[in-house]
Specification:
Length: 124
Amino acid sequence: VQLQASGGGLVQAGDSLRLSCAASGSTFSGTVMGWFRQAPGKEREFVASITSSGSTNTADSVEGRFTISRDNAKNTMYLQMNALKPEDTAVYYCAVMGYRLNRPVRNPSFYDYWGQGTQVTVSS
């Protein structure tokens, strides 16, 4: 099982980015996928989670600005990030749970597979 995150970069405050997470090696139908981020010197934090049926849960800090989605046929998850702020600067990780569940999950300890991360830097 491999997860490949991409789409990060250096942008200015107010700009948008779209992250992608491509999963390979197994089918993730019915599983929960999520995005997390970690800024320097801080713990990894929850960003958003989505079930196979499209139910989502988003962190308060990004609610209304970030949108999580997925394409089950392509085994790919996305994170559309709008109105980016300097405090959004972090390495963004995608993750997948190894078993089926029908609700989003915020706790990173429940995720079994992790991507390598993609850097997002927002300048003021």
